[in-house]
Specification:
By secondary structure, the chain is mainly β. The protein contains eleven helices and 60 strands. One of its GO terms (cellular component) is beta-galactosidase complex. This is Beta-galactosidase.
Length: 1000
Amino acid sequence: MNLPNYYENPEITSIGTMPDRAYYIPVPEGTADAGGRLADSGCVTPLDGTWLFRLFPNVLEVPECFPQPSYDESDMEPITVPSVWQCGGYDAHQYTNTRYPIPYDPPYVPFQNPCGAYATWFDYADQRDGSHMFLNFEGIDSCAYVYINGQFAGFHKISHAHVEYDITRFLREGRNKLAVLVLKWCDGTYLEDQDKLRMSGIFRSVYLLRRAQNHLRDFTVSQQFSEDLKTAWLHVSARFLEGIGSIAYRFWDGNTLLAQGESADGIFSLQVDAPKLWNAEQPYLYNLELSSCGETIREPVGLRKIEMRKGVALLNGKSFKIKGVNRHDSDPVTGYTQSAEQLLRDLTLMKNHNINAVRTSHYPPCPELLYLCDRLGFYVIDEADIEAHGGIDLYGADEREIGRLAADSRFANAILRRVQHLVARDKNRPSVIMWSLGNESGYGDNFVKAAEWVHAADASRPVHYESSVHPYPGTNTDLSVLDVYSRMYASTQFVDTYFSQPQQKPFIQCEFCHAMGNGPGDLEDYFKQIYRYDGFWGGCVWEWCDHAVYAGETPDGKPRYLYGGDFGDFPNDGNFCVDGLVFPDRTPSTGLLEYKNVLRPVRAEAADTRQGIFILKNCQDFSDTGNTVDIVYELTRNGKTVQSGSLPTLSIAPHTAETVSIPYVLPEDGRCFLRLRYLKKGGADCVPTGTELGFDQFELPVSGGFQLPELVVTAPVSFEEGERYISIFGRDFRYGFDRYEGTFTSLTSKGKELLTGPMSLNIWRAPTDNDRNIKHEWYAAGYDRALPKVYETDVKRDRDCVVLHCRSSLAPLFIQPVLHIDAAYRVHASGRVDVSFEVRKNPVMPVLPRFGVRLFLDRAFSHVRYFAYGPIESYADKHQASYRGLFESTVEEQHVPYIRPQENGSHFGSEYLELAGGGTALAFTSNRPFSFQASPYTQEELTQKEHEFELEPAGGTILCVDYKQNGIGSNSCGPELLPDYRFDENAFTFAFSFLPYALD
Ligand code: GAL
Ligand code: MG
C-alpha cells in the first residue's frame, strides 16, 4: 500500500481523531447498567470478536485495495480481537529489556516492518436524527491506519492510548467494513522501549458509541474540602460537542439520593456534608449520574484529598504508606490482552496479600483496572506510555544517553501528547493518586514541559518521574515541577543517608525489591525504614507477575513457559522478564507470601514473654483494628499446639500501639513458641472474613531442644581398617568411610543401604537470579568445581565410641584451596554420629554460597519431617512468611518450580530433620540452628537447565545439611546483599549429629 507516512513523524500522534476526553461508557438514559463495561446497549456496539487478519512483511506488500469492501477476503484468516498477533501464532515473540528491537535511527523504522491487516463488518442503521457514530480503540500496538468502507478515517499511535474517531460520514445503511492496518513499529517505538515481551496488534477492545447530534464530550469532577474535611464540594464541568449543553445530575450515597439538579451550561457544584472519605482500606464510593442528550454516564466518585506537606505524603490529612507493586498487562496466553476477569484476579490476589498500591508500569493500564482499583481500594500511580531506555545501548553511549529524547525537540510533542492522553483519560478516577510522566527516559526540557502541563491541567495530584535522576546535559532539568523524590533500587544505606538531612519532598522507591526468581530477600529491611521515616512514602516491588509465553505442556504434564532467547529472538534478555511475585499462571511465589507478612496489618513486639505481655502496633493507615482484625494465638510446644485462644476485640487506632496481655501458661519444658495470627474481620468478597492477613511468632523462655531418638544399645561399636576404606559397625549398622576422599561412602541400618552416593562436603548452590553478579565471582573462585584433598585420616577408639579424624581441603581445578577442614566423626554404639568441622576459608576468596554436607539418599527417602522455618522455603533474609514449627512433607513438595531453575526449597533455622521411607529413617540435630534442603534434583541439574520443564530428577533424594547459606537479597537488579546476610566467615565450626535407624 502506498501510505501517507505518518509513522515516521513524531510531530503527528494522530490524524482524524477526536480530542482527548475522560474515559466513560454512556448508557441510554433511563436504563440500568447494561451489565459489563462494554455490553451491547443502545449506546455501545461492541466490535470485539472474530475478525479477519493477514500479516504482511512490509507495507508495500499490503494490497492497495485491502480496506475496500470489494476486497476478496478469502486469503485472510480469523483472528480474535482484542489479541496480540504473536500469541495467535503470527510473527515471533521477542523479549528485550533496554535494547531496541530495531536500529536506533529516530524517527525512522525498518522498511521490513511487519504489518497486520485487520478487517471486520458491522451493521448500521441511520436513525436520521443527526446522531454520531464513534469508533473507539482502547489500545493498538504500535500504530494504526483506519478505514471505513475503504475510506481513510484516520491514523493514530501511542499504543496504550484510548482514541476515538467520528466515523458517521463514512457509514452507509446496512453492512459496513472496518479495516485497520497495524504497523509493528513506528516512531512511537522509540518511546515505547519498556522492558517487556514485544507484542503487536489490536490488543484492547474496539467498539462503537452512538451519541446524539450534540452530546457531552468530556467532563471533569474536581473536589474541594474544608480545612477540617467535614465538608466536601464536587465541581463538575462538562464540555459538549457543540456549544453549551445542559445536564441533569443526581448524586447518590448508596441508595440515598444526596443531591440532584440541572445545570444549563454543564457546570455545577454540590456540597457533601460529613463526607465518607475514600482510602484504599475503606474505598468508599459515591455515585454521580450525569444525564444529557438521551444518555447517562454513571461515575463512581471517591472523595479524597492528596497533599504533599513538609516532605510527607498525606491522604485526607493523614500520613499513609504506599505498599505497592509494579504491574504490567501480561499473561502467558493472552499477552497484553486482559479481560475484566484477569484484572480482577490480579487485584484480588494483591488485596489478599495486603498490597495497597499499583504503579501501572509503564503505560496507562486497561481502563477497567482503574474502576476496579476505585472499588477494591488501591492507590494508583498512573504512568504515561513512555520509555526510551535504549539510548544507553548505543555505540559509545554512557548512562546519560538514556535522556536523548528527553532533550530532543523533535520528540517534544510526542512526549507531551502521551502525558496528555494519560491525564485526560484517567483524571476522574479517585484511585489515581499520582501521575507519572513515564519511565527511564532521562530528564530534559520535554519532561519539564509535560510536568508543567500536568500541573496546569490537574492541580489535585502530585507528579512523579524517577528518571529525573538522569538529567541530559545542556537542557532544562528543573526539578521543581516534580512533587516527590523517586528512586529505584536505592539501597537501605542510601535511604538512611538521605534521611539524615531534612527533606522537602516525600521519598518513594517506584521500584525496589526485585522479585526475580528466589527472592526478594530485602523486603523487611526496607519496610522497617518505611515505617521509621515519615518522609519515606513507600515503594512498589518490581514486579507483580512473571512474564512468559505458554507453549503447551510436556508429555509429563509440566507447563512449558518460554522467555527471551526461546524464540530465536535477537536481541534478547533471557529470563530477565521472569521477575514477578506471582508465577505466569498467578500462583503466588514465596516472595509474595514474604511480602504479605511484611505488610501485615498489625505488628507485635514482646514486652515480657514470661508474663505474656506484648505490644501490638496497628500498621494500617486509616482503620482501627477493632473493625478490621481479629487476633488469635497459638502456643506450640515441640511443634504441637498446646494452648490457643482469641484475644478480645482490640481497638487500636491507626499508627498507634497498645499493650496486651495474653493468658497463656508457660509449659515446663520443650521448644515453645507463641504465634499471633491476624485474621480479617468484616471482610468483603475479595478478602473474606477470617482470611489470615499475617502473623508474628515469638520464642518463649522455656528450655528444651530436639534430640535424636535414644536407641537401646546391646553391642559396642567396632571398626576395621582396609587400605582405602574404614568400616565402622555396631549391632544394627555398618558405615563405610573413604580415607582418601574423606567421605562416608556407605551408611547401612539393619542391612539397608541409605546412600546411593557418598556424603561429601558441599559449598555450591545453583545460582539464584539474585546471585546474578556474585555468581561470576563464585565461578572465578571455582566453587562449582571444588575437589576434596585428604591429607590425613586416622581412626581410633575413644571410650564407647569410634572416632575418625580427617584433615582435608577443598580446592577447585586450577585454583588454590578454598577451605581447609579438620573433621571429626564420633560414632556411638547406637549408630549415632557426631560430626564436627573446623573450617578455615581462604580470606581472599569471595563469600561462600553455602557450607555443609551433601548426601545422595535412596529414592525411598521421600518423606521429610523437620523443625525449622517452614512450611515454605526460608533463608537468612527471607523468612518473614515462614515460622518455626514441626512440618512434614514429601521431598517433591519441597521443590519450588522457578521458571528458570535455581536454588530453592531450603529451610533456615532448622533444629531437627528426619528423612524417612521404606522403614528406615535418618535424623539430624545440631546444637545450633542449621539449614537443610531435600530435593529430587541435584544442584548441578538446577544450575545447568534453563527451564523448569527440562529438569530431570536425580532418581533419589538429594539432601544438603548446611551450616549456613549466603542470603538471597535482590541483586538481580537491586543493591548488593546486605552485610548481615553475607556468609563471609573466614573461620567457623559446624557440629551436628545424625542417626540412621529402623522405624518399627
Ligand atoms: C527497571 C525498569 C523496569 C525493569 C526493571 C528490571 O530499571 O524500570 O522496567 O526493567 O528495571 O526488571
Ligand atoms: Mg527499562
